[in-house]
Inverse folding.
């Protein structure tokens, strides 16, 4: 069902099976925090005979172990992306080494060049090779391009459990990446590159939890009926781990640096991160990205921001509006 906030006019798409039929519901708009009200007092659809109750579902530690074992079934981060990061981190390497690497993976090279020639970078389609891209854009920006090229295929699938159509998770991931980079440039410039990468893959845990969320949706919905319950609480209670914990494990399998995985692990609970600035930046960027309405799923309406996060990062209302506007513009340009 497509719904529209009467206050800010942003539209959201929520799968019909995620809506509690027979009830009147109200929830805050992810963007403006105005109240969205829906009257769903219509007859329940006839049962299909499929058992969607809790009987037969694996639970507890056994379920958690099964979920973590499923990480091996995910596509790996492309070797070219991992090797490229190693080359760029080596002070003795040169652009020719990078160019030679991409000669072995034309699929990733093509994606990198397509992104480099997007309106976002303002080069008017003049970038013709990886070496050329490294010269005109610089090593840090090239790193962003390589990470985006490698992650796009991994994060573009539809996720039924989270109510995300194909491409929606990728759009949200880009929004958080751009938002985190912008916040870092405003407040912690040295973290900008890491913030972009961490923002891009912060929700990778949803890739392995989605199947289990979809199977246990009635349990999730029942849990969410509790006062003050969050979607993250529901994940933890029913699956034994939430998607930030799952993302930490996925990123470990993808050989993501520990400086990034620590921030990703606590991007929903930065207060537990021992003042990890990167975790706070991703947390705030995630919230601002949801306010744009780009690529949000059913869990977005239950997002809870750490009340001290804005103060810790040092953002005011003007900064938030600026970041939100630039996220929207960045997504538009990078997608053209």
């Amino acid at each position: 069902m497509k719904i529209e906030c009467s206050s800010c006019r942003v539209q959201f798409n929520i799968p019909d099976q995620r809506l509690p039929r027979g009830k009147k519901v109200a929830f805050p708009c992810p963007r403006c925090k105005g109240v969205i009200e829906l009257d769903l007092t219509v007859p329940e659809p006839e049962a299909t005979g499929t058992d969607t109750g809790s009987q037969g579902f694996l639970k507890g530690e056994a379920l958690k172990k099964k979920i973590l074992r499923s990480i091996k079934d995910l596509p790996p981060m492309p070797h070219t992306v991992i090797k490229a990061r190693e080359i760029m981190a080596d002070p003795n390497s040169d652009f020719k080494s990078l160019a030679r690497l991409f000669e072995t993976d034309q699929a990733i090279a093509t994606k990198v060049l397509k992104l480099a020639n997007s309106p976002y970078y303002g080069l008017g389609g003049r970038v013709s090779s990886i070496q050329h891209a490294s010269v005109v854009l610089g090593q840090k920006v090239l790193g962003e391009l390589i990470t985006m090229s490698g992650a796009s295929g991994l994060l573009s699938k539809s996720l039924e459990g989270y109510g995300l159509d194909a491409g929606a998770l990728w759009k949200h991931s880009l929004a958080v990446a751009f938002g985190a980079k912008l916040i870092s440039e405003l407040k912690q410039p040295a973290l900008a590159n890491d913030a972009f990468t961490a923002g891009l893959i912060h929700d990778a845990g949803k890739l392995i939890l989605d199947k289990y969320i979809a199977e246990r949706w009635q349990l999730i919905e029942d849990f969410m009926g509790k006062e003050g319950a969050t979607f993250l609480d529901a994940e933890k209670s029913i699956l034994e781990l939430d998607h930030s914990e799952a993302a930490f494990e996925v990123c470990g399998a993808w050989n993501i640096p520990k400086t990034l995985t620590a921030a990703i692990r606590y991007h929903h609970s930065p207060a537990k991160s021992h003042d990890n600035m990167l975790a706070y930046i991703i947390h705030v960027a995630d919230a601002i990205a949801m306010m744009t309405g780009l690529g949000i799923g059913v869990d977005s309406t239950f997002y809870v921001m750490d009340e001290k996060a804005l103060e810790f990062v040092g953002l005011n209302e003007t900064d938030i509006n600026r970041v939100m506007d630039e996220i929207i513009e960045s997504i538009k340009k990078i997608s053209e």
About this structure: Residues 43-55 have pLDDT under 50 and may be disordered. The two ends are 27 Å apart (CA to CA). The CA atoms of residues 20 and 40 lie 7 Å apart.
